[in-house]
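User: Teach me something about this protein's shape.
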Amino acid sequence: MKADKRKLLAKVAYMYYEQELTQAQIAKELSIYRTTVSRMLSQAKAEGIVEVKINFFDAHLFELEEQLKEIFGLQAVELVATDKAMTEEQKEYQLAQAAGTYIRRQLTDEMVVGLSWGASVGNAINQIEAKQVSDITVVPVVGGPSHINSQYHVNTLVYELARKLNGQSLFVNATVIQENKALAEGIFNSKYFQELRNYWDRLDLVVVGVGGPLSYQKSQWRDLLSPIDYEELKLREAVGDCCCRFYDRYGKRLNGSLNQRTIGLSLDQLVKVPQTIGVARGITKAKSIAPLLEKGYLKTLITDQETAEEILRLMKRK
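Assistant: First, the predicted structure itself:
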């Protein structure tokens, strides 16, 4: 390459990257076409005149994201790094920040957004900063927890997100598990529930948590389950729940008595939503997350490095 050509490429690159001029401004100053400026910037990279250095780049983390996307056919994966020195609280906070940032980017005008509940979803909603959008509606996709465990009640999360978006919210006035099938059907088919059912048919985006195995102690609602429910779930080898709907390690829905008493979006409805974002982490929960990914119930996963690595280990054992 001639020295004068190299010098011009370097000058264009300097004006763009160092002086932060736009391509249109550079074109005007140098009396060349804007398309020529774009082509010269690309050539400057190819010739080594411009070298791009990406700071805070974790190649392993990005590789894990791509593996998960490819294996499960996901729309997106957001991972946060973990190390042995971190406490569980630090890991949860880091996940909440990443989830809040990602979810906020997805929110646009005239959306219908559904929320489940739990610590991970609640923490993510708390991290979302206010955003100016128009005509957005936020609705619950499950009934509420018991009165005892109400820290992350779905109505609270729905209200908070709608407030940050200057949108409207709709609440649910029933606990997630009812005493019997008839009572659950009565609520679901009632006139007051009709508006919520209509919104479930129009969901654009849903944010859900993932409930861990039956032995998993962190739960906001499982005190509503009876000993008979637990026995049935154990016999049918339940590995987790999503929207309070249980499934086994193959992702098969467990459509027993408990499912018939549950007030919430079904997994069949969940899979039809254009954007389904799962926010969950933990080595123990990996076996609960993997079946949801395999069956396509989640289209986006937000988790951390150690959970992602465990999910991939589980898949290799199959």
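Now, about its shape. The mean pLDDT is 93. The first helix runs from residue 3 to 17. If you'd like, I can walk through any region in more detail.
User: That's plenty for now, thanks!
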